[in-house]
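Quality-control log, excerpt.
Job 1 of 2 completed; input and output follow.
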Amino acid sequence: MIYTDSELKKKIYKMIEDFESEVVEFKEATSNYSFNDIGKYFSALGNEANIRGLNEAWLIFGITNDKQIKGTNYRKDGNLQSLKKEITNGTNEKLTFYDIYCIEIKDKRIVAFQIPPAIPGIVTTWHGASYAREDESLVPLPMNKIDLIRSQVGRDWSKEIVSEATIDDLDPEAVAYARKMFIRREENRDGASDIIEKLSDIEVLNKAGLTFKGQITRTALLLLGKKESSF
């Protein structure tokens, strides 16, 4: 999910009030911050998000560890978005941020890095090493967590439900096309076309296996999702 400024502000306030420390890291980062440490947090937070079944993790600059909003000048005169390309040089699978946001909260500049979970079955590494969170510290990814992620091999990632997604995240034209193709597939069955025509879009998608009991799967988002929803 890609956030608007207002959506992200609400999310950050929510994270300040109540967050899982293993998938959210606040850093004051007044003016600068180690690029190598950003890479380590990318690995650690992505691995922790995977283990918890979450769709994202966050590294946030401009907010202290005790949740004081201070603001940051990190790359204020530089190109924040170039970090997306820079980070791929150190990660396996060429992973990078979903997005990097720069917003103002209480007149303070905040930079938020939206980190994807590790790919099912594959730990996220930074320069060949995998990391995890332990309380407020970065540590090497322990073997039990490595085993948890590696055990996901064989799980059908595409069929998993994206809990926050709804049919509004799907492109109406793509849904109409999918409906047309499903009707064509079933046209040899007597009366099938007439029955399908009476079904709602979500009912057709359920029968086509693109959604499950009205819930949006990753397959549905990838094949039919609006551009901003496919993330």
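Job 2 of 2 completed; input and output follow.
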Amino acid sequence: MKNKLESIRTRLDSIDRSIVEALAQRQQVVKEVAELKLESNSGIRDLEREERLLNKIRDFANEVGLDRYYAEHLFREIITNSVRYQTHSLLDFQNENGQDQIKVSYQGTDGAYSHLAAMRHFGERHQSTDYYGYDTFQEAAQALMDEKVDYAMLPIENTTAGSINDIYDILGASNLHIVGEEILKIVHCLLAVEPVELSKVRRILSHPKAIEQCTHFLSRLPRCTVESYFDTAISAKKVLEDGDLSQAAIAGAHAADLYGLHVIAHDIANQKENYTRFVVVSRDSIKVDPQFPSKTSLMMVTSHSEGSLVECLNVFHRHGINVCKLESRPRMNEPFRYSFYVDIEANMHEASTQNALDELTSEAEEVKIFGSYPKQINGE
């Protein structure tokens, strides 16, 4: 029985490898398509062709006895990745950003979620990308301002823990620009040096935001001390270095692979659909092709009078622009006054959006545009 099971698993491993190799081959063809589209100045998406492809996949799935929905779901993800690559290719081409080598800063160390987001965003865009981890968000942003790196990857909001206010404060106090976003699904795990039982764990380390996102799980471990640490991956690294079987860290499975730790509890966040949105920050703004669904991020300060915030928001309503994010932050040395950080689904390089922003500038006391960038496309 055991030998037969091992034989079947070996066959599965071989099939899985073939699938990954086929996806890599497909991605090479996608790169060829992207190059041709750049040469001919063609549009990135052909929705009719995508639908024809999905119809073929559904029919083929029927022929080979595979669930139609399962096959369609997989190929929607594959198409999404193809569109992402082509979008980035056109964006870099139009902004003359064909650098072979770039440097990216982030908060944390190898294996941190910010590191993963940076690799996801830049991995296929350049021949070589160097990633530099810093202890704090401010240090990661300062490295960009000091021209030590070309971009910074900063987490700005999480679907469980909410906004990360430090990032808004950094943006408000600097002349940096948002040039992209990356949305990463966060799967928190509990990692230990050995596959120990949960009852043996006495101390858990992690970043404060990760702890905040796992309170339900942690409440079921009353004998554990939970301590804030610099970062999820740094917590994992410390658990490895200490070699203490009573210690564990909340981090991603990638950190477990990187540091040779064991996952003793998987997917422990309060919400299973747990996502973090990161912003890609640069010293320079970019122009975004109108064919891309875009976001524009800005900060505004309203007058201290009745209805002033409503009047500013009504500017977007009058111009048919959707406000998808509104965040307030206290202003330094101005008690009970606030800066409002706004994300709108619009492209500042289009005339209709620029008209709205001009009107907003005349309505508000201060407006600061952080930039327009392609809205991340989700496959689901």
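Post-run check on job 2. Residues 249 and 309 are 43 Å apart (CA to CA).
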